[in-house]
């Protein structure tokens, strides 16, 4: 039998198998992760409702009169350390910090692009994957990389129509927001679902280096992306297992190498004799190809 299946069917306590124990552990882990996500969503909703009641509500057009696009509400609040959007909340949160006109323009364009791209759906999908595959270490690497990719994609879209000088000013905004965020760290934002223009110094550094190297100009070819997608899906559809004999199915059968000779009895019947001298049974089809090389011995 397959050694993997044998291991999973191994009984640990009475009728409880290894598979049962692993399944219970997986379910407990999923429930724990699901509870964490629930608390995160609950905290996010509470924060947003509190911000709506206590902050100064404006719109993008109040800051950018010539803005073209959906005029999302902008909340100026002391409850956030950095400009951000909360998942599935069509609003931009900006801390009550003194920003220059250029900085506020770049900030609002950045966060509005997050809302326009529906990045919240992608982030929520990744969170669901983390719940299901919490036991797989690389899922957390994937989560971080997806978040980084989303931020770099927004950087790319925001700066797409900018001149080189404007792009450098945009980068300067990232650094400026980073500096002001470190001075205004007033809330445990690792516990809420959000997109912030500033995550941490390593991410900002990578985004700036990526930006300066001009990597936004290079796009992965669609066939390669398609193949990568198929590869990702196929890893969950194909299971590689070692070759093994299905013992219940093969019970009562013999390998051809174990055949010895054919015994022709006086009553006219033919019987198969194995190498160890055991008579396995009567032969009903003497023309079977597996018997063609066997000698017939008279009784």
UniProtKB/TrEMBL annotation:
Keyword Transmembrane: yes
The UniProt record lists the keyword Transmembrane helix: yes
Limits of the Peptidase M56 domain: 11-181
Pfam families associated with the record: Peptidase_M56
Keywords annotated in UniProt: Membrane, Transmembrane, Transmembrane helix
Transmembrane spans: 12-29, 125-142, 224-240
Protein known as: M56 family metallopeptidase
Organism of derivation: Thomasclavelia spiroformis
